[in-house]
Amino acid sequence: MNIRPTPEQAAFREEVRAFIRERLPAEIRERLHRGHAPRKQDTVAWQRMLHERGWAAPHWPREFGGAGLGIAERLILLEELQRGCAPVPLAFNVTMLGTVLLRYGTQAQKEFFLPRLASLDLWFCQGFSEPGAGSDLASLKTRAVRDGDHYIVDGQKIWTTMAHEADWIFALVRTEQAARKQDGISFLLIDMKSPGVTVRPIISIDGQHHLNEVFFDGVRVPVANLVGEEGRGWDCAKYLLASERTGIASIGLCWERLAYAQELAALVRQGAGTLAQDAKLGAEMVMLGAEIRALEVTNWRFLLDAEIARRNPGFASVLKLKGTELLQSLSSLIARLAGPDGLERRDAEGPDARHPLAASAARYFFYRATSIYGGSSEVQRDILSKTLLG
Predict the structure, then answer these.
(1) What's the confidence (pLDDT) of residue 223?
(2) Domain with residues 245-387, CATH architecture
(3) What φ, ψ does residue 261 adopt, rounded to 5°?
(4) What is the rounded CA–CA span in Å between residue 150 and residue 226?
(5) pLDDT tier for residue 298 given thresholds of 50, 70 and 90
(6) Residue 120: helix, strand or coil by DSSP?
């Protein structure tokens, strides 16, 4: 299969690069390059700039604020955003909920929510995981009981990313008991300002507040906020999780982190020179570059050749698994280059946030989670054993 870019694709890549150079605020670029996570205001400001071009939700139809881009252009856009140290559009809004609404939403839901999702006038979080359920989403216990034109929701979600910043949450709830646990689940959109919603922070190993517990205590949710059919929310969930896999290899981010490691190596003194002159370290970086390139080629082949995807339904797990391993290897390399200096806590808003090692330890710990979220590495290996090895 020929994966060389067409002239049109090469021109689009240059167009995206020029847009990032001209429009991305230098302060945001520098913070992300040093390894800090984007702040909410960074993501909102940049996504609204992308929205002007239809690039906030590039795969959506133009009538809902998208650009109707094909998979190759979408991948180019994502790669260049990551390599250019720009915040990527909020996945909860665009890749997850927006994609579900386009397929299962009512016309009223599409007209109200989709423009607000693309412009980030509404910030959504994802309410799937629950205590005691682990990776088995279908074991959820949060209940929604019909009461006239409303559902009454009671239960708890956990590991809810950015719930403390979110305006709304899309949640899986149980509306009936069924013989098969995947049945009787419904997909609801819930306003986080509703009475009875409580958010409690979880501070993760990187010392940051990304995660939360969310409690529902008699929360009234209009039936109009049901997506798809009652009791058929598992269909929405499966479709959402399949959509989430676009870009899971994080190719652009891997290339950017390798470039940052090379930059750090040139700053760290070793004898009369720097670590950039160390032959063993140089060989390690070359090997990492070769692995990223191999994953990049594999990613393009999988996404552009429908026949490969059809014959290998579990192949997305290869991308997730290898992308995870590479990101963790790169964050480990950066932490090693930082040495003891990288272990010092430097707040992203503090006076030393511009230090080149400011976020090295925190991001090392953050990327430990990549082998859990989006489908754990153990689950990916199970999928591969069933689909590729029989």
Answers:
(1) 98
(2) Up-down Bundle (1.20)
(3) -60, -40
(4) 10
(5) confident
(6) coil
Residues 120, 110: Cα–Cα separation, whole Å: 15
Domain segments of the chain as ranges = 7-89, 124-231, 245-387
User: What phi and psi values does residue 217 have, to the nearest 5 degrees?
Assistant: -125, 90
**Can you give the pLDDT at residue 347?**
56
| DSSP β-bridge partners for residue 213 | 200
Where do the DSSP E strands lie in the chain? 124-127, 143-147, 150-157, 168-174, 185-191, 197-202, 211-222, 226-227, 269-270, 273-274
CB contact set of 27 (below 8 Å; sequence gap of 6+): none
φ, ψ of residue 326 in degrees (nearest 5): -70, -45
Give the separation between CA 345 and CA 362, rounded to whole angstroms.
Answer: 8
pLDDT at 297 over 60: yes
Half-sphere exposure (Cβ direction) of 218: Cα atoms closer than 13 Å: 1
pLDDT in tens, 198-248: 999 999 888 889 999 999 999 999 999 999 999 999 999 988 877 665 567
Separation of alpha carbons 363 and 335, rounded Å:
9
Distance CA 390, CA 253 (A): 32
Instruction: Work out the burial of residue 171: count CB atoms within 10 Å of its CB; fewer than 13 is exposed, 13-18 middle, 19 or more buried.
Output: buried
What single-letter DSSP state applies at residue 247?
Answer: T
Does domain 124-231 bear CATH number 2.40.110.10? Answer: yes
Q: Which of 73, 79, 130, 244 is catalytic?
A: 244
Interatomic CA distance for residues 38 and 88, integer angstroms: 9
CB-CB neighbours of 230 under 10 Å: 17
Which tokens in the block code for residue 38? 């984007």
- Gap between the Cα atoms of 308 and 212, Å rounded: 39
Q: Is 244 a catalytic residue?
A: yes
Maximum C-alpha span of the chain: 77
CA dihedral 32, 35, 41, 44 (to 10 degrees): 60
Q: Is residue 146 within 8 Å of 223, Cβ to Cβ?
A: yes
Q: Does the domain formed by 7-89 have CATH 1.10.540.10? A: yes
Instruction: For helices 251-265 and 279-304, give the axis angle rounded to 10 degrees.
Output: 170
